[in-house]
Each structure stands twice: as C-alpha cells, then as structure tokens.
Design goal:
Two copies of one chain form a homodimer.
Chain A lengths: L4 E5 L4 H16 L4 E5 L2 H8 L8 H18 L14 H13 L1 H18 L6 H11 L3 H9 L1 H16 L7 E4 L2 E4 L4 H10 L3
Parallel strand pairs in A: 1-2
Antiparallel strand pairs in A: 1-3, 3-4
Helix pairs in contact in A: 1-3, 1-5, 2-8, 4-5, 4-7, 4-8, 6-7
Chain lengths: 200, 200
C-alpha cells in the first residue's frame, strides 16, 4: 500500500489554502491518502531565520497580486483577508483535538477554516468569530473555546511544530511524498508527476 | 502588434537558467518576442532586503534538490555548479555590449553562459574561463575582457540593475507580460495562460 502524502499548512497561508482545495482529489486519483498537519509557520520561520513574504516592502505588492492570481489559476474562490497574516493557534489546536478521534473530520475542519478566512473574510484569530465558525461546523462553541485554552492541546500543537521543523519544513504549504519534499502550491505539477511515475 | 515579454535574469540563478531554455519558444508560440535583461540579483536583493535562497541553512538542502528536480521536470540538463552562487557582472557587461548592436546575439550569449555554468560547470566568475567561453562563442577573448573592464559597460549594467529595481524586480527569473509581473520559473503555466487568453 503506497504511503500517505504529508501536507503541512498554516491557516494563515494563502498558498496552503489553495493547495488544501486540490490535494485530496490529486491524492485520490493516485490511490493515496493525505495526512494533514496544522502547524504555526512562525515557528518554522524562526527556525529557518525567515520572514513572511509580505514583510518585504517590495515583495508585498507582488505577493498580494500573486495570491489572487494563483487562486484564479486553480479556480478557487479568494478574497484577500484583512488583517493578514494572523495568528492561527486556536484553529490549529481544535484541528489536533479533532484529529485524535477522526483525522478526516480534522481535515474537514481545516478546509472549513481556510475557506472561512480566505473566501469569506472570517477573522480566525478573533475568538468570537472562531466560536461561530465552530458552531457552523457542528461543534459546541464553548467546547471549542475550552479546547484552545487547554494545556493538552497547546502541547499537541507545539509537538506538531517541532515535528515539522525536524522533518525539514520551513514554509507552507509543504508536501512530502515518499520522503521527497515539495515546497509551495506551485509544485503541484511536480507532485502529480511523482505520484504518476515515481522519482524523476 | 503585441508587446515584447521582459525577461530579467542573473547568470547565477538556476531557475533563470531553466526559464532561459523555454521562454523564447513559449513567446514564439504566442506571436511574442522576448527582451532579455541581464541584471545582478544582489542589487535587487539589497533593495528588497532579501538574502539568497541557499543562505538559509534549512532551505539550502531543499533548494539544491529543487534546482535539479525543476530542471529534470523541464527536460533541461543540469549539474549543480561549484562554486555557487557566483558574481556575474563580467558576463552581464558583455551581454549589454552585444545587446547594443544585436539583442538576439546578446540573448544567444546569455543562453551560452547559462549552459556553460549550469550544464558544464564553467566558472563564469573566473576571467580565464569566461575568456575561453567568449572565444567559443565567436568573440575575441581579449576584446571581451576589455569590455568588462570598460567603465561604459559597467555603467550600462548599473543602469540595467536600477531599471529592474524601478520596475519592481526583486528576484530572478522575473518576467513581465503586458505589465503583469511573474516571479519564478514555476510561473510558466500562468504565463502561458496569460499569453493564450490575456488577463485571468
């Protein structure tokens, strides 16, 4: 049985959002499953001494244009959210709580968070907005809030960040297939080729 | 008549090398020509406060793997050169000298430099190696050397760097089609789509 595809993402990454919209279908076409990993990109950036794309004044204007264009190229709805980027630990802790019982439901929560932030402008870092989203998703809002305040799930996310850095992750989306790392939504074609024919 | 495609590159950029191997054919398929711009990426990096990809310890290993894989994906011969990266002002000054009389010959020189460095390991920053390459290309080696020491062509390259930064260039390859900027060899599909159907 072929090994699952590892998909690392931060809920604040527009390129990871676009990838989240195609990766399951691509994997399924090649008989693979996807292991979703919610992480905090800030931790990976710190480990790699990097800065967010939009921090560089000259790059910011280009990046905003490319986010939207890359979404259109993939046929994915996209509205540049404000504020951007945002801290996403609360959504990520809920992800890991769901993942313990049911990884597919956690992946559905991830897609729901991505779409809320990047297509509807739902501010995931705002506790009230995130509780409302949790309710729409079928969770008990107060229970979701209790999860993101719980030391156990803070620790679980911390562990996920450390595991990602240890696996060489320094950006998002970061996809690993059979040990081969691919960084960026724009590596879709190469991932597809790898899945179809193996190493090239 | 549709406007030319502007293609900005540094001879030390592996992704720009890969792009140099497909951009003329892609443009021709869509009735376009290509304006080649040899620049020094270090100047653009400085303006944007960026660092080369391989400067980041965690990114370096990935980058070296991705250079070679991206070349294979495009069917372009590639052998990671050492040393890397290198200063490329001498090859770039010869480029601008040729461009004044014949832009197509300058583009041919650019392709020749790229292939020499990235497929045959010719060290472009070494004056003797570059003189030999100039001779193979049909130039008089000593004349080429005189060009890269000439204040006129130093100034011409400086002007090209400044014009690139003013045009928003902060990396290589950087491609501008009808005012739309595309950064990276991995934007080939989007460029192709733009050329085929216009804005999307």
């Amino acid at each position: 049985m072929p090994s699952p595809i590892d998909f690392y993402f931060d809920f604040s990454s527009p390129y990871a959002y676009i990838t989240s919209e195609w990766i399951e279908a691509l994997a399924a076409r090649h008989g693979r499953t996807v292991r979703w990993h919610a992480i905090l990109l800030g931790v990976a950036f710190q480990a790699a001494q990097l800065r967010p794309l939009t921090d560089h004044p000259i790059k910011r204007e280009y990046a905003l244009r490319d986010f939207a264009r890359s979404a259109r190229a993939e046929g994915v709805p996209f509205v540049q959210p404000e504020p951007f980027p945002i801290p996403t630990q609360n959504a990520a802790r809920v992800f890991w709580w769901l993942a313990e019982a049911d990884p597919q439901r956690a992946a559905a929560w991830a897609r729901s968070c991505f779409r809320a932030y990047f297509a509807r402008g739902v501010h995931l870092a705002d506790p009230e907005a995130l509780k409302t989203l949790a309710g729409e998703f079928g969770l008990v809002p107060d229970e979701a809030e209790a999860i993101w305040h719980d030391a156990k799930w803070k620790e679980r996310l911390k562990h996920a960040n450390e595991a990602a850095v240890a696996a060489g992750v320094f950006g998002a989306p970061f996809i690993v297939v059979d040990g081969e790392p691919f960084w960026g939504n724009d590596r879709k074609q190469q991932i597809e080729r790898w899945l179809a024919q193996g190493p090239f």
